[in-house]
Write a structure and sequence with these properties.
Oligomer: single chain
Largest sheet: none
Order of helices and strands: HHHHHHHHH
Number of domains: 2
Radius of gyration: 20 Å
Distance between the termini: 73 Å
Shape: globular
Strand content: under 5%
Length: 209
């Protein structure tokens, strides 16, 4: 009798898991389609909300919170968004939810972009705080996954935008973009996992020639 009840429990758990997956995958694909077509800050805010709702419903999946934070980070690059610090607080909250489930290099990619946005408000006065935070996020990410191409793309962008007299410039950025592209070409991301950045890295490499 005990074995019979245990079998029923296992079967019920498995069915619940399948049902959850049946809802999760289509919801995520819908969110990714919305992200791909987003054009305005309002569109991106809607994307962030969609993914956050998925994450809150799923409880054990970090990817929805990652994409919500990524959408919020995309908002932070828009020139019409003036308060980068307020936007960063939204990103931090989403990253905290994701990191409570799993720590990985993709979350540190978003942390780097968030800190960079805050630094760019006033690079001269904010470099020591947010510039170092951005650099630390890259270093931590590379330790967790030295084959994540997005980390090298972002490192290349940092070097590209740093004057040569301070250790940056096109010559320093070029090999880093080349490494990023090499890693993009060999990457085999799981379904729903991040794939973005290859075209951006290729475009930046072209500017280094």
């Amino acid at each position: 009798m005990k074995q019979f009840l245990l079998a029923i429990l296992i079967c019920s758990t498995a069915l619940a898991s399948v049902a959850q997956s049946d809802k999760y995958d289509p919801a995520m694909k819908n969110g990714l389609a919305l992200m791909d077509s987003a054009k305005t800050v309002g569109d991106l805010q809607n994307v962030a909300s969609v993914f956050e709702r998925i994450g809150d419903a799923e409880k054990t999946q970090w990817l929805p919170y990652y994409y919500a934070a990524l959408a919020q980070s995309s908002i932070g690059w828009r020139p019409e968004v003036k308060d980068k610090d307020a936007n960063a607080e939204k990103i931090k909250a989403l990253l905290a939810k994701a990191e409570a489930i799993e720590t990985n290099s993709e979350l540190l990619v978003v942390e780097n972009m968030m800190a960079t946005q805050q630094m760019m408000v006033d690079p001269q006065t904010r470099w020591q705080t947010y510039g170092q935070q951005a650099g630390t996020a890259l270093q931590k990410g590379m330790k967790l996954d030295p084959n994540n191409p997005r980390l090298y793309y972002l490192q290349g962008m940092s070097l590209f935008n740093t004057p040569p007299q301070f250790g940056g410039g096109k010559d320093k950025a070029k090999p880093v973009f080349e490494k990023a592209i090499e890693l993009y070409k060999s990457a085999q991301p799981k379904p729903l996992y991040p794939r973005w950045g290859q075209k951006q890295a290729q475009d930046q490499l072209a500017l280094c020639q």
